[in-house]
Amino acid sequence: MAETAASPLSRLPAVAERSAADAAALDALLRGAREPFVLRGLVADWPLVRAGLESPRAARAYLLERAREVPFAVSIGEPGHDGRMFYDAAMGMNFRMARGRLADIFAGIDANEGRADAPTIYLASIDVPGHFTTVDAENSVELGDRDPLASLWIGTPTTIAAHNDFPDNLACCVAGRRRFTLFPPDQFANLYLGPVDNTPAGRAVSMVDFRAPDFAAHPRFAAALEQAQVAELEPGDALFVPSMWWHHVEGLAPFNILLNYWWRDTPRWLGQPQDALNHAMLAIRDLPAADKAIWRELFDHYVFDNGPLVTDHIPAGARGVLDPLTAESAGRLRAFLLRTLSR
Fold first, then answer.
1. Chain-centre distance of CA 6, in angstroms?
2. Which of 70, 267, 289, 337 has the fewest C-beta atoms under 10 angstroms from its C-beta?
């Protein structure tokens, strides 16, 4: 990000740093954490980190030796966008998607190494055990009783617009350098979010260009910056990004690798909140104001307050999904929703 010394983005406070001597200490830091923090050197002993410190080609060779014979999804951006994976002028994408062998994708990175007009080449959210044999076992963090999804993010210099994710996230810088600019969950209105159904990678993103913020077009972004923090990661460092925190992510080196872990503290059989929000836009948002007010009260009653007024008058054992959900009752509710949505 080419901000000047006078840019407000160059003066953001750093994310707090913590330390964890062992798995128990890391578990204690993560349990219930609602603020981001950096762990310097957490994964410095990983073989993949050591390979990346040797050279980018050594890191690529390490991954190639362990790649499964499955297609890899890759995003390819045209030169001239400085690696920003974003919308084009027509609100399409300024990159194209392709699939291919990892060897061929890495050969493209090799061929463009050092070129000023090189395309952006980016492999995003690659499921580690599904695409590699021993990478997960050889490069891992002990996360206690959590059941995380491990993903790799590999590519040339990239800029990923600010977005958030529902799971908690431990992002480990493996090769190159990463910069995260983070905002608390309540800053969504100040980030000027784009569409929810036409996104670069499945989540609504900030329409603000962090390299050159237009405060005339996006005046509330100044308020967001008052709440922002920044973390710059070197190989071996890790960043905890709590659920729903907005994060703008830059791969700053000619070649970058990040391995992250996603997990949720609630059971996987519970639904995705974003699905509920999308359905509410379909069913409620465009109702008359008086009707919307009624539904707001019903949501408060059944979902947000969810107090004894909801259930105390119903005999125990007859409350159905008004009782705390179980895997079985959640399955019944999901089946009911699928039937109603298919009408």
1. 29
2. 289
Q: At what angle do helices 56-65 and 102-112 cross, to 10 degrees?
A: 170
Q: 64, 190 in Cβ contact below 8 A? A: no
Query: CA-to-CA distance for 242 and 244, rounded, in angstroms?
Result: 6
Which residue in this structure is represented by tokens 């840019």?
Answer: 7
Vertex 188: Cα angle to 325 and 225 (nearest 5): 140
Q: Please name each of the domains of the chain with its CATH number.
A: 8-263 (2.60.120.10), 273-341 (no CATH)
Mean pLDDT of 199-208: 96
User: pTM higher than 0.85, yes or no?
Assistant: yes
In terms of DSSP bridges, do strands 149-155 and 17-18 run parallel, antiparallel, or are they unpaired?
A: unpaired
Instruction: Count the alpha carbons within 13 Å of 271 in the hemisphere toward its beta carbon.
Output: 17
Gap between the Cα atoms of 90 and 57, Å rounded? 37
DSSP classification of residue 93: B
Q: Please answer whether residues 97 and 73 qualify as being in contact, where contact means their C-beta atoms are separated by less than 8 angstroms.
A: yes
DSSP state of 44: T
**The 95-100 sheet, strands edge to edge:** 17-18, 37-39, 238-241, 168-175, 256-263, 149-155, 120-127, 72-77, 95-100
Nearest-Å Rg of the Cα atoms of the chain is 22
